[in-house]
Amino acid sequence: PLVSATEMLQNARKGHYAIGAFNTNNLEWTKAILKAAEEAKSPVIIQTSMGAAKYMGGYKVCLNLVQNLMESMNITVPVAIHLDHGEYDHAMECIEVGYTSVMYDGSHLPFDENLEKAKEVVAAAHAKGVSVECEVGSIGGEEDGIIGSGELADPEQCKQMVETGIDFLAAGIGNIHGSYPENWAGLSFDRLKEIADVTDGIPMVLHGGSGIPLDQIQKAISLGVSKINVNTECQEVFAAATRKYIEEEKDLQGKGFDPRKLLAPGTDAVVELVKQRMEWFGSTGKA
Ligand code: G3H
Ligand code: ZN
């Protein structure tokens, strides 16, 4: 069933595992993520960035796609459809359209404004049973053209943000979007612990999940991370499998150029990666 992310993340937090939130871009990725979740018997969050939703034809198309595929694929595991890094207007639109979860990302705004807008989004969302994620501090690297500074979240600000009534919190703890540089210092577990101590058991979100070593993922989960966002790694395996198919000239054999054949290896690679990450995050078998 299509559900808000609140309950699945609370269960994850209590059960010491995390739910993967995977970004989709099109039909193939959406099918791949749903297939992986069903095979792994894992709850899952399918998320669209503002850019990906625009590419796919709008939020309504994304929502209908997920809903219709869940029906035709006989999906039995809990699925949330979530707006990733949304501006205020986009979060409001998604709540209106029927998304079951939204991230309002005001992390680049002055903190007071971030807080005020968060309250408005929470009020609109909770009136419709939609879950809300907000961000404090900054995730380093680029997403949808917005470059984050990577500044660590201030625990006091995290506490204030949680008091707005949000359902889960994204806090900058040294995590970065995209691939991690050679000299990356790793996640700041001290800061994560300080934030967890003052935020009353709220599920925490780890952005930039691609490229974080398993031991750091596990430690982050043990300290309260319950949602892990993965985007770049899916793109990498999709591109690599597609490149291999073309370099082996399979597109030149038989009807190999048929888009259904051309896109299959990449799609299969996304299924495998998502299942593997569910295994890492401990959500396999939790549906
Ligand atoms: O919001 C999306 C994520 O934080 C994805 O980060 O592309 O580094 O996996 P990633
Ligand atoms: Zn992110």
TrEMBL record:
GO molecular function, one term: fructose-bisphosphate aldolase activity
Gene responsible for this protein: fba
NCBIfam families: cbbA, fruc_bis_ald, PRK07315.1
Active site: D84 (proton donor)
Binding, dihydroxyacetone phosphate: G178, G208, G209, S210, N229, V230, N231, T232
Protein's UniProt name: Fructose-bisphosphate aldolase
Domain of life of the native organism: Bacteria
Cofactor: Zn(2+)
Gene Ontology process terms (BP): fructose 1,6-bisphosphate metabolic process; glycolytic process
EC number: 4.1.2.13
Cofactor note: Binds 2 Zn(2+) ions per subunit. One is catalytic and the other provides a structural contribution.
Naturally occurring in which organism (per UniProt): Vagococcus humatus
